[in-house]
Amino acid sequence: MNMIINHPISTEKAVRVMQSENKLVFQVTLKAKKAEIKKAVENVFDVKVESVNTLITPQGKKKAYVKLTPEFQAIDVATDLGLM
Q1: pLDDT at 60
Q2: What's the CA gap between 17 and 60, in Å, rounded?
Q3: DSSP-derived 3-state class of residue 18
């Protein structure tokens, strides 16, 4: 993808969050900041991001939950990526 976004995550939970909360889930580099993640997602997928939440897993990987604005659908982006 680019230097910040490693890859999208398509687990059952990620798909549920996509459908119910209009969020995409990505694995990102450990040093990525929320503002950098927001900018990267907006540039790569041509969408508007409302908010970004991050968490570091017990395995030491960083996940980003990216909420899109209402005019963009997370499901549509996931379909374009081939996740759905």
Answers
A1: 96
A2: 22
A3: helix
Query: pLDDT tens across 18-60, in order?
Result: 999 999 999 999 999 999 999 999 999 999 999 999 999 999 9
Q: Which residue has the tokens 């209009």?
A: 22
DSSP secondary structure string, 33-72?
-HHHHHHHHHHHH---EEEEEEEE-TTS-EEEEEEEPTTS
- Enter the CATH code of domain 5-81: 3.30.70.330
As beta bridge partners, residue 68 has 49
Query: Could you tell me the residue ranges of all domains in the chain?
Result: 5-81
CA distances 48 to 11, 14, 31, 52, 59, Å, are 23, 19, 22, 11, 30
Q: How many Å apart are CA 28 and CA 18, to the nearest integer? A: 17
